[in-house]
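Read as amino acids, tokens; as here:

___
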Amino acid sequence: MLTGGPLDVLTGDYLAELTMLILGRDRLKDPDLGYARTFLRQLEEGLGLAHERGVRIVTNAGGLHPAGLAAAVRALAAKVGVPVTVAHVEGDDLTARHEGALTANAYLGGAGITACLRAGADVVVTGRVTDAALVSGPAAWWFDWSAEDHDRLAGAVVAGHVLECGTQATGGNYSFFTAHDVRRPGFPLAEISPDGSAVITKHPGTGGVVSAGTVTAQLLYETQGPRYLGPDVTARLDTVRLTDDGPDRVRISGVRGEAPPPTLKVGVTRIGGWRNEVVFVLTGLDVEAKAELVRAQLADALEGVADARWTLARTDHADADTEETASALLRLVVRDPSPDRVGRALTSAAVELALGSYPGFHVTAPPGPAQPYGVFASTSVPATQVPHTAVLPNGTPLQIPTPLTAPSAPPEPTAPPAPPEPAALSASPGEPATPPAEPTEPATPPASPAFEARGSGGGAPEGVGGAAPAVSGAEPRDTGSGAGPRETVRAPLGRLAGARSGDKGGDANVGVWVATGPAWDWLRDTLTVELFRSLLPETRGLTVLRHELPGLRALNFTVTGILGDGVASGHRFDPQAKALGEWLRARHLDIPVHLLPPPEGTGT
């Protein structure tokens, strides 16, 4: 990022829910730790070049000990002979208020970063700030925004959300990856303008792609509804407008902001207990019977274990021409407050079945000891009770005032001033066959988030999804001919729609989008909560919320509790729900033929 083109601020997002748990365990071993040490190794290589080019560096790698990392950066700068000023942001650590917690940190906004940059800091280190604050904080410094510039701050927050996961905005983890060369995607950058609008792009000559699709995918990642709540501003995702601005350039505009909520999110991690697992390989015939035999043989050994979960993955194929493709996997995951009940005694009991169980008995790994696991939960705290503090380069602590919180009605957007040169900010550390959306006027924000929470369905039978249903109080949807519903074909949803999914604690989020207006009409009317549950049966019995984002031609689903206690507890095959969206795209339903892109190789 430092050598590939112009840059004003280089950002680095190092913190995730699992990272906080890991840093918490580091801090238990050594109170001087608790920050991301990999940042220092990266900084040693690039600090001199950043200083030479006048690039400011902003990172949340401070984790649980931002003051410690700031001191380490100063020591590194002295070692390599680079005269930089360093500041840090603190006040997020609320562990002492949560008895028994390993870590408890409030998600701070970007105002502390802004204050540090205004005081002349070359490097700003923070603890737990929101991922987007790494961009909105520098943008507010660059343009001298106030805390009441909600629309501008919201635009920068949206740009920060696009950048926060690096190459996920340039073709990484992208549903339509086969349409592009994404072997080495370049990192994204945002050219931010004074009205808060931004162009997402990447340095010339870098790999991957920036398109309306890649930006949409990241905008939908790990969000929960049209109002994207943050400590500085509430960004209205249902007002986002994406337009093509040239090759590998997508403009984000029209974002409206509202005052932030009066509370801050607090992420709390705890040591949840001990876990272990054994994976049995079942090959050839009678897979179900083999699995039942193992379960019965281990029943006594599992007596008294707090939580034991069996899953059978039928990865086997009939008449397979390799042993691996003839095999299924039976996975046992055990968790308990005591390491003794899920330690070697249990895994050894599993392996001791080797000569007296099903034919072809073997496991994927030898028995191992129990491992500690963590749990993540989120709560909230009044923003006024969190001492958001910027420690300036000269060591002076500066208390950051709490912004005015949400009024009863959202403010009207303000007119942007004439734009000077934009600021370029960067994140550090396949396209649909249909064309990107043509520029349109921003959608009028709904009065309240649209959502459904209906009962579970019974599958996706033939005939589901073909014709758009009538909409009460609205004009009938255009089916294209005026002669009734068009022809449908049974096909995977992913032929038409992209998706991206992820985790928020124990909840999963799935964003689904399409590229054209007619496809959006069909998706909005067809993919209800009922159908979503029938396509993904593992979500049945759970609370599922559905939110509409018309400006992005997208739906966002939140599945409450599907991940249990979060990624660190690791009871699911996909503990962070990263592939939940791809599973949804692989499910078949009836799709109108005229909406589907032509098959590859047809020449049309």
Observations:
- Residues 37-53 form the longest helix (17 residues).
